[in-house]
Amino acid sequence: MKKPILIMVLPVVMILATCKSHTNDQSSPYNTIPSLDELSAFWVSTDTVEMEPSIRNFRGQALLNRDMTSISWFVSAPFSGGYHSGTLRINGKTPKVNSWRWQPYQGLRKGSHDNLEILSSTRMLFDKDAIMWEVEITNKDTIAREISPELDLIGFVSKFGGDWQWWYPYPSMSGTVTNRNEEVENIREHLGEQVFEKEGLSWELVNGKPMLQKVLMKWPSDEEIMNSAKFTTSVENNVIYIRDTESEAITSFSVVTAPDQISPKKCGATVSWKFRMEPGATRKIRYLMSYGDNHEIIKQNVLEWSAGFEGYFRGIKDSWEEKWKSIFQPGNSFISGCFPVLETGDLSARKVYYTSPLTMLYMTNTNLPQHSKVFLTGGPRWGASITFFWDITLWSTLWAVVDPVMMKEHISSWILIDPSKYYGMDNFGGKGVGNGYSANYWALFQMIRDYIAVTGDYAFLDETIGNGTVLQHLDDYAMNWERISLYGTEGCTDDIYKLADFGDDEWNLLECVPTYKHIVPSFNIGYAWMMREAAKLHLHRGERQKADSLNTLATEMIGRILKLYAGNGVWNSLYPGNKTIQVRHCLDFAFFGKYIPDDIPAAIKSEMLEFLYNELITDHWMRAQSLSDPAADKSDRADHGPFGAFDGWPVDIMDALTQMGYPEKALNFYHAVEPVTNEGIWAQAHELWGENKTNKKALVRIAERDWCNRESSSGVAFAQTMLKDFFGFYPDLNGTVIKPPKDFTFDGRMHHVYYRNEYYTIEYKSGKPVMIRERNRKQ
Questions:
Q1: Which helix (H) or strand (E) holds 566?
Q2: What is the CATH code for 44-315?
Q3: pLDDT number for residue 208
Q4: Residue 766 burial (CB < 10 Å; 0-12/13-18/19+)?
Q5: Cα gap 315→305, rounded to integer Å
Q6: Which of 44, 294, 382, 698 is surrounded by the fewest CB atoms within 10 Å?
Q7: In the chain, where are the structural domains located?
Q8: 656, 550, 538, 650: which is closest to 598 by C-alpha?
Q9: pLDDT reading at 16 higher than 60
């Protein structure tokens, strides 16, 4: 049952127009929503793509491998799998993939072997504990062929309790593993090959930080994995059951296409067939995997799904399409608001926009105990139960529009987590995870602020959570800079040191940029903005003296921040002892533009723009850090370094450009990134690669290196960019809603925008965005 949204609403200052509601006589905006097939990735060649496609189903997730059938990094808390699920061999050889296609409901692989063409589809059964495979083998030869397919079915799956970290636990031959060494990745790289060791670089924790170390790396063979004494296997008809002796986990494989032989091992079995295939003939191999901790339930499910395999397999797509359409409908049963519907003839902007709600839907997990529904930050290799504060904050205004009930529930639990110690929450164990990111205070403040601005739920400020009211927590977040300032200590006695000092550990900020630490502009700007926003809340309560004090502190802080200017559009980090180090990174540009655009002197703003376009923006993406940064050669990571960017950085830059008065430039950038969606939904990072990676013509792809996630929730913010920056939906705490972009119009309408218990359509009239209340759409 949907929970009601109970709010207190302030008087609203916005442009309202009286008009007739959109009727059925007009073209329905729902006709403009792309189908899942339209938003699916193109077929991409394995020799140009680094990151394999994933599969998900609201409960579990996994990565496809470069053979025709196996998956790795399978996880569905409390279950996770080690190594891989088993490869297909034909006449003794393991065919490899030559191209992939990601679709929300399946991962597709194409390959060939000895005049045989192979197409495989791997799907997770919708919202159930099962994975289904369909493998088509076609004889492209001119003569009949005798083929002998054999398939390893490996159930190396365990059940884990306790608290899960970003590096969730998984089983190995040597026991439970949480750290991410290269063992699984080496097995994935050499599937079907008789290679079991090599010298190379492996990530190791050194003084608590991951560093590459040169080591001799070894890994087990598939034969060793299948004969692990950790598991026992039994066979009932064509169903194989693998039991973990160290936990309650049971994995089953049902071979729907009846095999000629099943050869059981300790951790699974090898099944085989013999086919005679005429020229042009196609044979299908179908099987499924299920998992759990109750044999009878697993057995019952597996028998049902096997008997109705074709219907269940085909129905996965239908279920995804149904869920996809539902999130755009006010009053749906899945989210308490709805995702706004963009109606536009701008096809590039349409593709970028709708890739965002698909990312949100794909990252949704409804099977973790702390909340009925969560938006995971990453995966599948990392963070199977984790939500990062920073990433979800990038689209917090949109979140308040899409699902305000969920948002309030989550931020209420997050307030109880110490932001000085943890960067997010484990939705499995319920505790804080990670380390104390410098972004945490700003992120939590921004989310609470945006929730209140969109819903009008000012009563939330007086709710007691933990050791104080929500307003007291906001004040605490905004003033945290005083607690971490080094002003008055040795080497920090000048007035400019009355700023937040984020410490000597770069892992609290951008992780890979060794010079971005101590006093930096970005999150000091965040503190100045927080104080200004807190002042609005206190002014609303009639506490003018408190508001004036906060505004004065914010103005003084901004004056100090501006003294960090290094010239040529970039900024300095300030260390104790008046030591400054120039940092040429996008983060400072983003925070200046988003939060204090009117405080930037015109000359500096112009130089910042030159820096952005000369050193960061490329033809279809951007680099987070300039190649001219003094630390560029020490910062090479795809998300925050010079050869790529975290998917949240482009949206930050677009917002900054719009607030600085350049919405047309922001829209041009929005159009430019559209081709990157051809590989799939938004990721943790896209890297710049190829022979032109040092210039604007660099190729762009989803990053695999540096342990990046295949997909990430930060990219949902591309839809927020459309809503806020191009339609002007910028709710303020003072009740103002529309903030028209300067000298700009967008050709389109935004339907079903939730705001304070009503739904609105936003469209441009006389060059300005106007909110039109939708009839019969009250929340």
A1: strand 565-567
A2: 2.70.98
A3: 60
A4: exposed
A5: 12
A6: 294
A7: 44-315
A8: 656
A9: no
pLDDT at 779: 58
Whether residue 103 is predicted with pLDDT greater than 70 in this model: the reply is: yes
Residue whose entry in the numeric block shows the structure tokens 């482009």: 650
Amino acid at 435: N
Residue with tokens 């296997």: 233
CB burial of 61-100 (b: ≥16 within 10 Å; e: otherwise) equals bbbbbbbbbbbbbbbbbbbbbbbbbbbbbbeeebbbbebb
Task: Cite the beta strand spans of 187-278 per DSSP E.
Answer: 197-206, 209-218, 231-236, 239-244, 250-255, 261-265, 268-272, 275-277
Summarize the confidence of residues 532-555 as an average pLDDT. Answer: 98
Both tokens assigned to 522: 């970005």
- How would you classify the pairing of strands 424-426 and 432-433? antiparallel
CA distances from 473 to 329, 440, 498, 532, 634 (A): 34, 13, 22, 15, 37
**Contact in structure between 449 and 458 (CB atoms under 8 Å):** no
Mean pLDDT of the chain, nearest integer? 94
Q: Which residues fall within 8 angstroms of residue 23, CB to CB, at 6 or more apart?
A: none
As a whole number of angstroms, the distance between CA 205 and CA 203 comes to 7
Q: What does each C-alpha distance from 609 to 68, 568, 642, 672, 718 come to in angstroms?
A: 47, 10, 18, 17, 21
Q: From residue 539, how far is each of 526, 544, 550, 734 by CA, in Å? A: 20, 5, 11, 9
pTM for this prediction: 0.95
Question: Which of 211-225, 473-487, 645-659 has the least mean pLDDT?
Answer: 211-225
